[in-house]
């Protein structure tokens, strides 16, 4: 039975995606017919190449290869604001050889459109940490602060690029609108890389992007960061001068988790296999380097702890997206 919730623009297109993807490729169905682990695993990234999800997926895949001595192939299945990737994993129920690099879209999609899945349809493996987005503008932009952008949006059109209609940046912009009586016109893209290209090309006015996606452009002077949507400033030297939105009177803070899920209905043995591999990866220098290079805050959670985190985060998102 399809779960239903408030439907947003674009639901018809998402339904077509779901109907097509759910029928694709699943050789196993449910725990009773759970497949065995093999030396070949597919890591699904539900967004395009170059964005934060892609970076996370490829890093985790490499770490799991190291931990298990198996081959983990990354497969970008972007489209439908992440729906195509998640629907593809849904079709692999019972097969432990399919993983997905997950983030906030897994929780937001079922709250904003009619979907065939929610987070309970998958097997939670681990959360590796959180990141907080920066509000950035082109270096030539007249905007000098986040407070100025909010004020301008109340009387003039401000165009915001978002990576997927249900991604973290869209959640943050919605929270700003609710808290500050602001209004943004959104243009959705399939990845943070596409959003940044549009910002540099003058197609949009503002964007909310992960530090890892924009640090190079901040260093080169092509982009400027006006604030970070976090409770405290980043401690990293490169970001320490960026004020929080709260410092500018905008009471908005929201972190995106980065994590790993497997198909639903896999065996307990397979779940333990991937959880153990994740723990091993997160004890390596590669994990430390990823967190450091991508400016994430470590928050490792496994199995049931990760499931509880998802339940709490889903409830919080519902209050934002379906007030």
Automatic annotation (TrEMBL):
Coiled coil: none
N-terminal signal peptide: 1-24
Entry keyword set: Signal
Keyword Signal listed: yes
InterPro entries: BUG (IPR005064), Bug_dom1 (IPR042100)
Family: Belongs to the UPF0065 (bug) family.
Protein name: Putative tricarboxylic transport membrane protein
